[in-house]
């Protein structure tokens, strides 16, 4: 169980090394690690107190800073063995480093037939039936209340702004409900049918715990999925990590332009 001082220690190093606070943080998902190269600071996670090391392929493990935003290149997943509390440590550290708006990106499988590999989709809401939550345990009231509302988990205001940005750029932006699965195995066809019946449009192995931790401490959240594959059984083909990474890479430039525009406008 982390203490407030642990988050403060991490925030202190982040602001010292990045030349101050930022109001926006962007978290890059699988295969998106090299989207932003023009940065003012590069801070390896290994130099930030209490930060875990990403072990997932295509997750770099560096915090970058631009003049407006912190950029997390590489995140932590449940399937790596990190607890929900450990994998959301960075969210509270960033809150103490000034962040009010958190943009979470990820690679996701398409459950809805309205989505295709290569699509970029706004997350309208999420479903977490894992039975896990990063806030299980003693509540630290200095971050937020024990019980809190999740009716606008993904900020309608930020979603509207993201839609305006996409329109300006002529980029098609789909939308969907993100269904969390721990992985690391991809879903079975029967699980994908169950996810569809329960209201999921996208399926992936990240994002929801971070969103919960961020809402708890009062951040606004924007979620964006890069659709890398049809979920198992939807398109007929098997799912492979290589395809996921390849498609995320191919959508990279469109996503980079969109994210740059969003950071400018929020
Ligand atoms: N399932 C779960 N996670 C994913 C997928 C998928 O099909 N694609 C990318 N991340």
Automatic annotation (TrEMBL):
<dbReference type="GO" id="GO:0009116">
    <property type="term" value="P:nucleoside metabolic process"/>
</dbReference>
<feature type="binding site">
    <location>
        <position position="187"/>
    </location>
    <ligand>
        <name>a purine D-ribonucleoside</name>
    </ligand>
</feature>
<dbReference type="GO" id="GO:0004731">
    <property type="term" value="F:purine-nucleoside phosphorylase activity"/>
</dbReference>
<feature type="binding site">
    <location>
        <position position="59"/>
    </location>
    <ligand>
        <name>phosphate</name>
    </ligand>
</feature>
<comment type="function">
    <text>The purine nucleoside phosphorylases catalyze the phosphorolytic breakdown of the N-glycosidic bond in the beta-(deoxy)ribonucleoside molecules, with the formation of the corresponding free purine bases and pentose-1-phosphate. Cleaves guanosine, inosine, 2'-deoxyguanosine and 2'-deoxyinosine.</text>
</comment>
<comment type="similarity">
    <text>Belongs to the PNP/MTAP phosphorylase family.</text>
</comment>
<protein>
    <recommendedName>
        <fullName>Purine nucleoside phosphorylase</fullName>
        <ecNumber>2.4.2.1</ecNumber>
    </recommendedName>
</protein>
<feature type="binding site">
    <location>
        <position position="206"/>
    </location>
    <ligand>
        <name>phosphate</name>
    </ligand>
</feature>
<comment type="pathway">
    <text>Purine metabolism; purine nucleoside salvage.</text>
</comment>
<keyword id="KW-0808">Transferase</keyword>
<feature type="domain" description="Nucleoside phosphorylase">
    <location>
        <begin position="24"/>
        <end position="264"/>
    </location>
</feature>
<feature type="binding site">
    <location>
        <position position="107"/>
    </location>
    <ligand>
        <name>phosphate</name>
    </ligand>
</feature>
<dbReference type="InterPro" id="IPR000845">
    <property type="entry name" value="Nucleoside_phosphorylase_d"/>
</dbReference>
<feature type="binding site">
    <location>
        <begin position="75"/>
        <end position="77"/>
    </location>
    <ligand>
        <name>phosphate</name>
    </ligand>
</feature>
<feature type="binding site">
    <location>
        <position position="229"/>
    </location>
    <ligand>
        <name>a purine D-ribonucleoside</name>
    </ligand>
</feature>
<dbReference type="GO" id="GO:0005737">
    <property type="term" value="C:cytoplasm"/>
</dbReference>
<keyword id="KW-0328">Glycosyltransferase</keyword>
<dbReference type="InterPro" id="IPR035994">
    <property type="entry name" value="Nucleoside_phosphorylase_sf"/>
</dbReference>
<dbReference type="InterPro" id="IPR011268">
    <property type="entry name" value="Purine_phosphorylase"/>
</dbReference>
<dbReference type="Pfam" id="PF01048">
    <property type="entry name" value="PNP_UDP_1"/>
</dbReference>
<feature type="binding site">
    <location>
        <position position="30"/>
    </location>
    <ligand>
        <name>phosphate</name>
    </ligand>
</feature>
């Amino acid at each position: 169980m982390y203490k407030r001082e642990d988050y403060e220690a991490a925030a202190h190093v982040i602001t010292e090394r990045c030349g101050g606070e930022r109001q926006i943080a962007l978290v890059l998902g699988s295969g998106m690690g090299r989207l932003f190269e023009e940065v003012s600071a590069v801070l390896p996670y290994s130099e930030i107190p209490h930060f875990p090391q990403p072990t997932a392929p295509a997750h770099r493990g560096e915090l970058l800073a631009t003049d407006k935003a912190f950029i997390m290149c590489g995140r932590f997943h449940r399937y790596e063995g990190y607890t929900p509390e450990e994998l959301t440590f960075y969210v509270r550290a960033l809150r103490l480093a000034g962040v009010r708006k958190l943009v979470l990106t990820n690679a996701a499988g398409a459950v809805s037939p309205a989505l295709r590999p290569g699509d970029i989709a706004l997350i309208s809401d999420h479903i977490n039936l894992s039975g896990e939550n990063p806030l299980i345990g003693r509540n630290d009231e200095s971050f937020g209340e024990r019980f809190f509302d999740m009716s606008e988990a993904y900020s309608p205001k930020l979603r509207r702004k993201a839609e305006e940005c996409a329109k300006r750029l002529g980029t098609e932006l789909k939308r969907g409900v993100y269904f969390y699965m721990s992985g690391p195995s991809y879903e079975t066809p029967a699980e994908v049918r169950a996810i569809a019946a329960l209201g999921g449009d996208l399926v992936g192995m990240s994002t929801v715990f971070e969103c919960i931790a961020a809402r708890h401490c009062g951040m606004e959240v924007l979620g964006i999925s890069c659709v890398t594959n049809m979920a198992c059984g939807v398109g007929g083909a098997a799912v492979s990590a290589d395809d996921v990474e390849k498609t995320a890479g191919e959508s990279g430039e469109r996503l980079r332009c969109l994210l740059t525009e969003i950071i400018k406008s929020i």
